[in-house]
Amino acid sequence: MPDFPRDPEDLTPEWLTTKLTSTGVLAAGGRIESLSWERIGDGYAAKTVRVSLGLSEGTSGPTSVVVKQRSDHGPLLALAKRMRAYEREVHFYEQLFPGDRPPVMLDWQIAAAGSGTEDLARFALLSMRAEDRRASQRELLEAYAREHTVAGVARSADEVEAEFGAMTVFHIGSVASAIASADVTTDQGQEFLHSVMPRINAAVEDLGDVDEVLARVLR
Prior knowledge:
Blueprint: H1 13-22, E1 32-43, E2 46-55, E3 64-70, H2 74-82, H3 85-96, H4 116-127, H5 130-150, H6 157-181, H7 187-207, H8 210-218
Antiparallel strand pairs: 1-2, 2-3
Helix pairs in contact: 2-6, 4-6, 5-6, 6-7, 6-8
């Protein structure tokens, strides 16, 4: 078996016992005797299952865990590896949410150090409907600049807007690459396309001359 099972069918009580004991979730000597699993969703580049655990008598531990496994879709897998998506997500959990903290649920697949305006652009582009973004974008940028200034880092809304435009260009390219690799035959793939394409098209229309957008940052 690989160090991390690639499919839900590959999960075994022995493997989970070893992993959960090594992280302190199960006390030494504890044992998982049986398991069953159900799929609770397929992420963009992953399969996610809830595994119910049958603990041996006297074993203290969780009665279920959530296991996330890599995608089987070749192009998606290649894209995730190229972006180091799995490595970055694991690193995020290891650094910010070690095993001795209360349970949390975060889906932070491509966490990395970068410009705050990159997060802002990603949020506006992918998490807001085009009409909502258009109606509130300037207000959002002004609020972002204002909070920076309050924190001691003086920023103007125009400076933030210039960076925001460049980061929007970057994310449009990233999404285009993701779409090219996506499995659009699934319901999730279709939903992704139908939700994101109008937002991308509107952003491209609003940006205008991309060369001019990028030049504003380089001046």
